[in-house]
Amino acid sequence: MDASGVRERATELPREPGVYQFLADDTVLYVGKAVDLRSRVRSYADPRSDRIRRMVRRAERVDFAVTDTETQALLLEANLIKRHQPKYNVRLKDDKSYPLVQLTDHPVPRIEVTRDPEEGSTVFGPYTDKGRVDVVVKALRETYGVRGCSDHKYSGRDRPCLDYEMGLCTAPCTGEISEETYREDANSVVRFFEGETGVLADPLRRAMEEAAQNQEFERAANLRDKLDAVESFHSGGGEAVSGRSHEREVDVLGAAIEGDTATVARLHSERGQLVDRSRHRLQAPEGEDRVAEVLAAFIPQYYAERRLPDALLLSERPDDGELFAWLEAEGVAVRVPGTGREAKLVELALKNARRGPARGDELGALADALGIPRPTRIEGFDVSHAQGKAVVGSDVCFVDGGGGAGQNSRGAIAEKADYRRKKLPDRNDDYANMRELIRWRAQRAVEGRDDRPDPDLLLIDGGDGQLGAAQDALREAGWDVPVVALAKDEELVIADSGVYNWPNDAPHLHVLQRVRDEAHRFAVSYHQTLRDDVRTVLDDVPGVGPTTRRNLLRRFGSVDNVRTASADDLRDVPGVGEKTATALKQRLSGREDLA
Fold first, then answer.
1. pTM of the full predicted structure?
2. Among 5, 241, 363, 554, which is most exposed with the fewest C-beta within 10 angstroms?
């Protein structure tokens, strides 16, 4: 749009509060709020920055929605930005829930790390370091034998599963432990999460010392690492983050900007004790007073769907009357402290925010190599099938792990809660299958049916053909996301900007390889599940259940090969004993129609 087009469109808008959107085709480029829609949109005829000027040139039309109040406009703007992730807004890129630990509401409760706890469960968290949570949960299972299986797998068992053999479960399902004794162990787990660290630390320490005395040094080292994770699990935040306050919940926000990336660090305090920390990245705005603008964008986007704290402590005060009117109406005190304990909290938040990307930043290196903004969310795709049968697609997700400089950098880490998989039509056409998979993902995003944030980069497992198919699907759906492919044979990265042959030790190549390999693994795993779930004559053999059937097919590849296998070879398969091997030979011999 040019200046005259913007002015002409503005005359058609009402002089009321609301939200406006600049669009190109059906892609939302920018979302804004206004007290007076007509006046605000008219101001875009003379844009205030190069970024907004580029947006206006690209836009083809302006849409709007009227609200009753300025506060409604503020919240609607935040929700639209979170939904559409417009390219030209200051937007919260990695908005996601954090992991919780739940003990289910069951006579024999199971323990699970989840982001979506079941109703009635006993829930602990949230926690920002999922890796540490996983270590602690595994240590608890090894110590107290609390089950991790689903209720479906728990019911109706006649023998313990592999977790029992590995020492991760005491097998209450088959009566290896009484329910009363099991519940006592589950109560010990609850006591640990309520802060009684010694419930787990003491047995780990005894086991570590015993392993060291027996010169089992590798096991002792492993136990030491678990003990470190356990002892730091409930650690506090130091002098600045302890104390008492009449305000039950306080959030402290500090923002820092490096280049075109802004980071907001959030510290959450309850009754004077710091209980949670998180960091969030946004696109940095242009112009002066950028930190205040970042905070003004972050607060409504983050809290629109979360409970507000009693108070917000900020590193700078945003110049946004609608924002403060909303916070005041919700009873939230807002302060920018200058001295005292609250100022120490703000300084701690700023230190966290300034831990921006530096040396060892593989995602920054990837951005530089491809000439794109630094990606904080990458989705990888692959297709798996067997000669056109049981065709499936995988969609895995890696997010910025929040790494800082040097060896503290975590780079891109798998976000398994955001993995998805798709059953595709049976056909032996890799390009058509990839096109179908990407079209499915893109359409869900464009139509707002996918509950995940949009990625910054798509990675396709394949070469030119798969990349072209993916690009066709993106164009058809109208989804504007950068996409590259990584071919397996020569590890060449293929993009619109060219073909890259990066050194084998390049960190930006390594991050793409991790995403590609995980997409391949996830696709193959799903394909094998579908392939193995096809009913065969093996199901009719006494002693052969679903697990043994899968083991037989994985070992021999087909029913025909099982039929011709020797009894000795059959007995080598897990779950096949003498009687089952004999039954297989008797049932399959002479039956030529069973393949």
1. 0.37
2. 554
